[in-house]
């Protein structure tokens, strides 16, 4: 009887895990479908530079900051690196970009993922780029930002950044964009003017800084 109870308990937890994964997938489906529609109707053009990741990407007004660039914003707010891995074939592969610019990892650490797991998820995304896109396509990873709201997680975020930076140093197809240090003031803490009122998302000044770094490092 005890053996049967154990099996039933394991089945319960397995079912709960499957249900949780399905719920998570359902959360993003409307956003992903909307991004796919832009690809099929021609709004998002093949050969464009693709920006992908969480809300810091989604809220980036690319036409404003890159008026002459052939760029596509495929960010979806609240997402983690693993979500971009999951939907890669739907929102990145069809566009055959020469360059993918990713920002994510912020929500990962806030959600309880360790730096090791963030690093692992980044490697999975990088592998998607290598396996599904042309050999000349490069991946630029914008460092996980230091924010006022999540400053208590800064050590873990910076640890994940350093692990990813090492991967980029060793691979010609990977580029690490260090926005961490430029976002800190003389006191070693995030500059308030770079953030919106919530202390998490970027202000216009924050996007101005990010844009200057991206343009300088990637010649966009």
Structure overview:
The longest helix is centred in the N-terminal third of the chain and has 39 residues, at about 1-40. This protein has a single domain, classed as SGNH hydrolase (Rossmann fold), CATH 3.40.50.1110. The chain is globular. Helix 7 (about 115-130) runs parallel beside helix 8. Helices cover about 50% and strands about 10% of the residues. It has 9 helices and 5 strands. Residues about 10-25 have low confidence and may be disordered. The chain is of the alpha/beta class and about 220 residues long. A 5-stranded parallel β-sheet has the order 2-1-3-4-5.
CATH superfamily annotation: SGNH hydrolase
Task: Report the C-alpha radius of gyration, rounded.
Answer: 19 Å
Helix content: 40-55%
- The residue ranges in which pLDDT falls below 50 over 5 or more consecutive positions are 10-23
Number of domains: 1
The shape, in one word, is: globular
CATH topology: Rossmann fold
> In CATH, what is the class?
Alpha Beta
CATH architecture: 3-Layer(aba) Sandwich
Signal peptide: 1-19
GO molecular function, one term: phosphatidylcholine lysophospholipase activity
Protein name: Argininosuccinate lyase
InterPro entries: Ester_Hydrolysis_Enzymes (IPR051532), SGNH_hydro (IPR013830), SGNH_hydro_sf (IPR036514)
